[in-house]
Design goal:
This protein has about 325 residues and is mainly alpha-helical. About 45% of the residues lie in helices and about 10% in strands. It has helices spanning about 5-10, 25-30, 35-45, 85, 110-135, 145-160, 165-185, 190-200, 210-220, 235-245, 270-280, 290-300, 305, 315-325, and strands spanning about 20, 50-60, 60-70, 70-75, 205-210, 260, 270. The strands form 3 sheets. Strands 5-7-6 form a 3-stranded antiparallel sheet. The protein has a two-stranded parallel sheet with strand order 1-4. It has a two-stranded antiparallel ribbon with strand order 2-3. Strand 6 (about 260) and strand 7 (about 270) form a beta hairpin. The longest helix has 26 residues, at about 110-135. It starts with a helix and ends with a helix.
């Protein structure tokens, strides 16, 4: 579907349509060219009553017009989608059927009638509870807020209206799918960097030279830092600075390298106090870490100061209080 067709379909339908996109990777994949108009339409339409602004007319004789963009959308495809669409979606990751798993083949002549019957039953039931849930404020599971809450709130309201085991199952699904979406998000290479710096690099150190940070990042077998582009090129100092510069310190200044005075000179590096605010705001809760674990990770239990000059460790208790503050 082209962007123009989408806008006209939703605006002129008279009733809110349901859009089904299969092979969505051909719309937003790396060879599809972005399709910014379609992405903008889908982004704007995830809330009831949403509209999107477009130009209409021919040549220089054009004017702006608001088009309705709210409707139900289901998308299926390979790979991932733009981050702005993922954050507005309930993401269900599918797997190929295993050889030992059996499923009844879909036959349109048989199952289309069953689908229509189920749809009609649901529509009839929805009409009976529409007024009751229009202003409902369902209780959200702990930890689900902001945009995930926007997405799940109407689903939980319907589950509450259905009663029985539906409210409990819906909230369990909400927690599981929101968690899985957060863990599987490819959007957060920056957050992955922040988290690795906190949990596997600094580990209680007050400051670290850039060379030492990069050395530790490159050693991580399960991380992308040693092969950033798939061709064996590791993360370098300039890229590290650029990625961390997307975040700010507690003073609302971009995180950047600063001079670190050591016995061997004054190299550039990073301070934990500059990263602390970003760690607090963006990273998941930290695992139990101590300065001792950092020492063994870097040099097998030998003196870290000898191998990585310019690193000064604070006690685990102090690190915890700083992080809490």
């Amino acid at each position: 579907m082209s962007a123009n067709a989408l806008f006209r379909l939703v605006e002129d339908d008279g009733e809110t349509p349901t859009l089904l996109f299969d092979e969505i990777d051909t719309v937003f994949g790396p060879k599809a060219g972005g399709n910014e108009e379609v992405r903008g339409f889908l982004n704007s339409g995830y809330r009831r009553g949403a509209k999107s602004l477009r130009c209409v007319g021919d040549g220089s004789n054009q004017s702006t017009e608001w088009f309705s963009s709210f409707c139900a959308v289901a998308m299926a495809g390979l790979g991932s989608l733009p981050d702005t669409i993922l954050t507005r979606s309930v993401i269900i990751r599918m797997r190929k059927k295993a050889p030992n798993e059996k499923a009844e083949p879909y036959r349109r002549r048989v199952h289309e009638k069953q689908g229509h019957a189920l749809r009609d039953r649901l529509a009839k039931w929805a009409d009976t509870i529409r007024d009751d849930i229009a202003a409902a404020w369902p209780e959200m599971p702990e930890g689900v807020s902001d945009r995930p809450a926007d997405v799940w709130e109407p689903l939980l309201a319907v589950a509450d209206a259905a009663g029985g085991h539906c409210p409990e199952r819906a909230r369990a699904a909400c927690l599981e799918l929101v968690r899985a979406a957060g863990e599987g998000s490819g959007s957060s290479i920056g957050i992955r960097l922040l988290t690795d710096l906190r949990d596997k690099v600094f580990c209680g150190a007050e400051r670290m030279p850039t060379a030492a940070i990069l050395e530790l990042l490159h050693r991580m077998d399960d991380a992308p830092w040693a092969d950033m582009d798939g061709n064996g090129k590791p993360l370098k100092a300039r890229s590290l600075s650029k990625m961390l510069g997307e975040y700010v310190t507690a003073k609302n200044e971009p995180i950047g390298p600063r001079s670190i005075r050591t016995t061997q000179g004054v190299p550039k590096g990073y301070y934990a106090e500059d990263l602390a605010d970003a760690w607090l705001r963006y990273c998941p809760l930290p695992p139990e870490k101590t300065a001792t674990s950092a020492t063994s990770q870097v040099s097998g239990g030998e003196s870290v100061a000898e191998e990585l000059p310019g690193i000064r460790y604070i006690t685990p208790q102090a690190a915890t209080s700083d992080r809490t503050a």
